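Hi! If you just cloned this repository, the fastest way to understand the data is to look at a raw example. We've pasted two of them here, unedited. The first protein comes first, obviously.
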Amino acid sequence: MAVMTGRSSTWVRAQRRPKKALFLSSPIGLGHARRDVAIAQELRKIHPDLHIDWLAQHPVTRVLADAGEPVHPASALLANESAHIEDESADHDLHAFQAIRRMDEILVNNFMVFNDVVDETYYDLVIGDEAWEVDYFLHENPELKRFAFAWMTDFVGWLPMPQGGDAEAELTADYNAEMLEQRARYRRLRDRSIFVGNPEDVVDASFGAGMPRIRDWTEANYDFAGYVTGFTPPTDDERAALRRSLGLDADDLLCVVTVGGSGVGDALLRRVMDAVGPARRLRPELHFLVVTGPRIDPGSLPRRPGATVRGFIPDLYLALSACDVAVVQGGLTTCMELTAAQRPFLSVPLENHFEQNFHVRHRLANYGAGRCVRYAETGDAEALAAAIVTEVAREVRYRPVETDGAARAAALLGELI
């Protein structure tokens, strides 16, 4: 009888086979895409032969194209989540929790596309950065999991807006309870849960009556990668060079205005455009760079002397690092890029957007970063102009943002391959 020595031939072939990963990046805004590309690049340093496919939709695909990342052909079959979010918004108001409750058909469709993809191709690792449909339906159908699965997020816990009253408080608590139950029943379904940030960045609130504190539960159930900016803040000399590349003289002041990657921020852009004239009367050396992003037509905005309107800018973080002040929507990525670059900024969170009003504001408070302005306060162009000019003169000293978050996240993911 032959005696087997060493590893089986099947095991040997499996080790020689090139490793493959499938990356899913939330399309609601561009922040997920920017950090996910940075993490993917770090992951390839650990596993140089790793092939990564991206199952993605616009505007994520715009970022991936500029980064030279391969988009899976099945991406064309995904229903667009950003379009749904835009349809749910009006006049800088987006009830994010309710909007997500009303996108079941989109989530079911996109999970089915995902399931077909992993049926056709074997992936060693699936990474879902707030890929809600994949995480939810895998927990509901655990027999469909046939790969290592890593979940990533920068917030934990649905929180009710005060305007929603008791009914919304009960609904968010119910959603949280369902998630807690799923995790308790199928702890092995996620091979890794990664929080993009640090324990103190998690809100110290409750999931709901009779449920644990969100921070306590997150610390017990997640690994923490630190924040992922995907860039190192420029030195003073590098910043000076950036400003020259933007055509700025030494005495010029630059205000960057941006509302992220969705089409939700059109109303805020128009209000800032109305404030350009009054602001330049107070500080004639002030110039505005207004960035509409990939889903708002730059030609739809009015033109103002002293203001340049641009669409999608792949390396927007460079302009943010070079600016003297910024006016932004309350999204986490842009706010944290400004925080990392130590730049003063006004943050105008979307009304009724629980993540921007609770989770993001909590994190910014940890860093001592930015000045929050309610959208209602931006209706007076003179007052908004005065606020912008006041921030230009503000000396900031935020808590430093780590620069190794992408490498730390990649190390946690690399262990699964």
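Ok, and the second one:
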Amino acid sequence: MSAEKPMAETILHFLMFFGALFAFVISLGQFAQKSKEPVHLVYSFSFAGLGLWLFHISLYSTGIFDQWPGIYHLKTLPVPFIFLVPPLMALRYKWIISNRFIFRRRYLLLFVPSLFSAILLALPLFIDGLKPDNRFVDARPILGESFASLSPYFKLVYASFMLPKLYLVLAMLPTLVSMITIWRKQPACRAIRLSRMGYLFALSIVSSNILAVAGDLVSIGLLKAAVLMANLFTCLVYLATQRHPDYNRLLKIENRKAHYERSRLHGLDLERILARLREIMEDEKAFADEELSLKDLAGDLGISPHQLSQILNERVKKNFSTFVNEYRIEEAKTLLVDEPDRSILSVGIAAGFNSNTTFITVFSKHMGLSPGQYRKRNLASAGGGSDESA
């Protein structure tokens, strides 16, 4: 690169190629693991492919080696190997989040695009008039006039630079959908936080490739930005796995748990169950039973306690205790005002609380004032009644 070029451009090109080198280093580190579990090999090969991919994008988007006589071959030969990255990356995440991963023969179809690209690039060996030329692989937006001037064959060759990126987006979408269940849980523990981080990393892969596809289509500047974005998240993945060596294991466990919990509601008529739940609580006043339990209420609904707990958490957004106590508090508020001569203790018991202390504590926390204060305030605003306080 000439010394006349701006320093900013030099730094940009350095950072782009550094990301490719760093991905290769991560790959070698995984390959050198003492544990030769298949997941480590998939991890290693996927990052080796990512390194090759980042190098290839940097090579044709920067054009800093275009003066080399053999640059056409250097830019095209990696393409069949780059087509291996999308299936490897998708299988890697599938391996992580699956309870038991089996490589099935149908997965071999994922590698067919790599074979087709190899055949495409080999055609000049058998067809006269398809002589490779460095000018045919210069950086150019596919929607630009320069690309339109290429012959049909070299349009396909140049388009093959973009297609692996689009392929990866399509290959990773099912993984993103299957992993989204981890966002239904509160990030209270380390495993869930790591699982969410894993989801964000997968999302970053897809996002950077969408940006790269846009760059191939309309702007080489966007293509460079996509490389920098991918490099950043590659570094973050490395730091995360160094800080949390059991990252892959925790991601697998948490996603498996989330899928299991989601499957417990499969086949249930949730709207019917929720309607019956409201009927039991509002019309039959099941909350007034001070010994009401999650198991009892689930039995009345004809479902398991685990299913009811999940319905309350996901659909009502409350746990069992909060759900029942809110009904009890509403009942107590009515009784405090409608029956001013009734004692606070009697009101609490009638509403379903098993002791006066529990009633006052829960009521005060929810309402911001004690039952006696609530009664006094509301009766005063109504123009009369008892001033009894707790």
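That's it. A detail worth noticing about the second one: The radius of gyration is 32 Å.
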